[in-house]
Specification:
This protein is α/β, with parallel strands linked by helices. The protein folds into 2 domains: 46-159, 2-Layer Sandwich (Beta-Lactamase), CATH 3.30.450.20; 197-315, STAS domain (Transcription Regulator spoIIAA). Helix content is 52%, strand content 22%. It is built from 9 helices and 11 strands. Strand 5 and strand 6 (147-156) form a beta hairpin. Helix 6 runs parallel beside helix 7.
Length: 316
């Protein structure tokens, strides 16, 4: 009876051993499959043209790929995120201001934030000239929902930043060129206005204002300002307004001239009107425009003679 019990126990132990051996083989196959999958994932990570890194909840790096190590060096020796950032420079857009570690994409992700497209200028011993990188980071949580760590992805965006900087520089150059052109245009416009409304000193106490073209409100205001300034500066007593260059006149233009005459009279000078063309005279008659007691003469020579006669009479 004892022999039968021992045989049954031996069989049970053998069955148990066979079950354990099968489980062990299954575990070894699972571990081999996991190692193969890990190796495949690692190979994929190593050949990705982007930087990839992951850190645990304390900020210690647990995964880095070849691109990150090329950019930052061997970051595996860094204990925390702060120590890792201390070994290289992550800068703001000005390339000189260091980014606060709390604002780095990985640090933000460790606080539960998902980061998309954060741009940094990174300079390290491996890349002393520095380069622009776009960072994408996200946290990963455990079964309880707490943040267990975070992963960050670095994409080189130097080409795009170079084009943006080139575009900005070109826009600045174009803006400067446009400003220079506007300044030149303003100077030319001022020169043209001065040439189109010259004020000539024909004689002592006698100024001449040859008018050419159309006189609008803006031009009449500039004309009045310049003429009154010249009269006061040179203490002139006569102004000859020559209309030889005016081919068309209307009520508005005539009104501008009357205001100019009144302004000249208010500062103690006298106006003489010369050079009215027959067509202009006919238009003034049709418009019933009257210059009152304003002296009108045939041409500039007659106007100068008239002024000189007045000056001679006063001298006598």
């Amino acid at each position: 009876m004892e022999d039968g019990s021992q045989a049954a126990e031996i069989e049970r132990l053998r069955a148990r051993i066979a079950e354990l051996e099968e489980r062990l083989e299954e575990r070894e196959r699972s571990e081999a499959a996991a190692r193969a999958e890990t190796a495949a994932l690692r190979a994929i990570m190593e050949h990705l043209p982007v930087g990839l890194a992951a850190a645990d909840s304390s900020g210690k790096l647990i995964v880095t790929n070849r691109e990150v190590e090329r950019l930052l060096g061997d970051a595996s020796s860094s204990e925390t995120l702060d120590e890792m950032l201390g070994s290289y420079g992550v800068f703001e857009a000005d390339k000189t201001t260091l980014v606060n570690p709390e604002n780095v994409a990985l640090g933000r992700a460790l606080r539960g934030e998902t980061v998309r497209g954060a741009e940094y200028f990174i300079r390290s011993q491996n890349v002393p000239e520095g380069g622009w990188y776009e960072a994408h980071a996200a946290p990963f949580a455990g079964a309880d929902g707490d943040v267990q760590g975070a992963a960050v992805l670095f994409l080189s965006c130097g080409g795009r930043k170079f084009l943006e900087e080139e575009a900005t520089a070109q826009n600045a150059a174009l803006t400067a060129a446009e400003a220079e052109k506007l300044e030149i245009i303003t100077r030319l416009r001022t020169a043209v206005e001065q040439l189109s409304t010259p004020i000539l000193e024909l004689w002592e106490d006698v100024l001449a204002l040859p008018v050419i073209g159309i006189v609008d409100s803006r031009r009449s205001a500039e004309m009045m300002e310049r003429l009154l300034h010249e009269i006061v500066q040179k203490q002139s007593r006569f102004v000859i307004i020559d209309l030889t260059g005016v081919e068309v006149i209307d009520t508005s233009t005539a009104d501008h001239f009357m205001k100019l005459v009144k302004a000249v009279g208010l500062i103690g000078a006298r106006c003489v009107l010369t050079g009215i063309r027959p067509a202009v005279a006919q238009t003034l008659v049709d418009l019933d425009v009257s210059f009152g007691q304003l002296e009108t003469l045939r041409n500039l020579r007659h106007g100068l003679r008239y002024c000189l006669r007045w000056l001679d009479d006063e001298a006598v």
